[in-house]
Design goal:
This is Glycine/betaine ABC transporter. It is built from 13 helices and 11 strands. It is α/β, with parallel strands linked by helices. It folds into 2 domains: 2-106 and 218-282, 3-Layer(aba) Sandwich (D-Maltodextrin-Binding Protein, domain 2); 108-206, D-Maltodextrin-Binding Protein, domain 2 (3-Layer(aba) Sandwich). Strand 6 and strand 7 form a beta hairpin. Helix 2 packs across helix 11. The two termini are 28 Å apart.
Amino acid sequence: MKKISSTLLGLSMALAASAHANDKQLVIGTNNWAENIAVANMWKIVLEEEHGYEIELTDVGKSVLYSGLANNDFDISLEIWLPTTDKDFLAPYKDEIDVHDVWYEGTGLGIVVPSYVEIDTIDALRDSAEQFSYQGRPTIIGIDSGSAIAGLTDDAIDAYDLPMRQLYSSDPAMMAALDDAYQREEPIAVTLWSPHWAFAEYDLKYLEDTQGVYGESDDIFWFSRKGFAEDDPWLTQVLNEWHMDDDTLGGLMATIEQQGDPVEGARTWIGENRELIDTWLAAGE
């Protein structure tokens, strides 16, 4: 009887350990940042094709992302920058959202110019604003108006008294403008962040933020609706083990950019980085 009971107990534990592979539906809230698209598609492929999940990626604005997690419309999201950049987005929902572990350390954020541009500080941008005209006006080209970097750039324009506008667009539109100016070696100022594939493709530099408007370096965490860790302890352990650096994340983003498709690019990168991914997955065993 003891032997049979032990066998049944072992079988029960094995079934519990693999429960995450059965009928698991997951909604991941995403935004249009290059690294967010990259890691969301990477995890969608790994979890669907190897662990039986059904994953829905839902692209929304920042404010909707946080309220959606708080209201259980989404299960997880893979990118929150703390302690500075996303603190104001998190603040109204800090009791309804769980922030989990860091997966990328040491972000960058600010106004970026090509390295051939002679100025090195945001202060110097004030006196050189006319050189950075876009569509007839001195311009810093940004991304969507609801992003944290857009708000900080508005603050920087005020703090440094820059005679410039911020032109809200999108990551792809901003990058298209950067590429066009870069190919012609013309001055251009854009809002950018690290990690981003642009730093692997172009010779760029951050303008020094002497007033500290953009804050100190952040880390990137993943976060979830309240109670997700109890509902899916396996995936929680796996994502808490997940870590990437400039080489691994930059490689993922560069592969996607080269292939022009986030799914195929992520799938190619997964095949080339099997050992790394297996170390993350092993945490759930």
